[in-house]
Design goal:
Elements lengths: L8 E3 L5 E3 L10 H8 L17 H15 L5 H8 L5 H4 L4 H7 L1 H17 L8 H21 L5 H7 L20 H19 L1
Antiparallel strand pairs: 1-2
Helix pairs in contact: 1-9, 2-3, 2-7, 2-9, 3-9
Length: 201
């Protein structure tokens, strides 16, 4: 008798079952996204503070950086910034060196999940190229800030590994980072999502 296929879906607290191999936008709920991201640690938890610095907080930082770099950025693209790491609510936050070791198939897997999230919230599966480039720059800037404030990197070392976009003063005065308890991070994420969705119409 043939072995049954291994389970490829994740059950969410909302009751949804998200198929990781063929994700449907109909199975994506923002409460599940916020809940998961608020409990996933950046830097594999290797950060200072009583709490992990969550992916939810990282996404809030990236969205803020996007608005600082492009003050006229439409709300829908700021929403894309907030959701840029949404797949990690089900797959966790693999550090970049591990993603590189896994290879390109993992990136395609992440992009399928992200496309489902985008479609659920009325965004295109992939933003325009210039928006993707902006989000990448903001992601690097956020990593730089987190590296020097929370993850123990010296400034010189952080500059070597993370790109710093021009036009921003990236320091603890302008962008102070403090890890939040998961429930606070979740509430902040949901509040920002609601504000951006309302603004985007």
């Amino acid at each position: 008798m043939a072995e049954p296929a291994p389970r490829a879906w994740q059950r969410m607290l909302s009751g949804r079952r998200l198929d990781l191999l063929d994700p449907s936008p109909l199975d994506v709920e923002i409460e599940d996204v916020a809940h998961g991201l608020s409990r996933v640690a950046r830097w594999n938890g290797q950060t200072r503070g009583d709490w992990a610095f969550s992916v939810a907080q990282h996404c809030l930082l990236v969205e803020r950086l996007a608005g600082e770099l492009e003050p006229g950025l439409p709300a829908r693209w700021r929403l894309a910034a907030l959701l840029h790491d949404a797949p990690e609510y089900v797959v966790g936050d693999l550090i970049s060196p591990f993603k590189a070791a896994v290879g390109l198939d993992y990136k395609a897997f992440e992009l399928r999940l992200l496309a489902a999230v985008h479609l659920r919230f009325s965004l295109p599966a992939r933003p325009p190229g210039q928006v993707e480039e902006l989000l990448k720059r903001c992601d690097h800037a956020a990593a730089y800030l987190e590296a020097i404030q929370l993850a123990g990197f010296a400034e010189k070392e952080a500059r070597r590994y993370f790109k710093r976009p021009r036009g921003l003063t990236l320091d603890a005065v302008h962008f102070p980072l403090a890890p939040l308890p998961p429930d606070e991070a979740k509430r902040a994420y949901l509040a920002r999502f609601a504000a951006l969705q309302a603004e985007a119409g």
